[in-house]
# Entry
Amino acid sequence: METEKLKFRLHNDIVQSDVARIEHALKRVDPDSNVSVDLPSRNVVVESWLMPEEFLIAFADEDLNAKIVND
# Structure
């Protein structure tokens, strides 16, 4: 299946120590995904074949408020 870049914006302030926790949570949803976290902008990009809504639960499980960004 073809992957897409799914973009999310976090409403929470995040620091470097949060990156591994975010990556781990999102990889539980799709172990084959590629996850990129940009701290200053609080943007997270996930390359996956899954729907973006499937990742919102992972953010919520980590007490992170995320929204899907549509370009």
Summary: The two ends are 22 Å apart (CA to CA). Residues 29 and 57 are 9 Å apart (CA to CA). DSSP finds two helices and four strands in the chain.
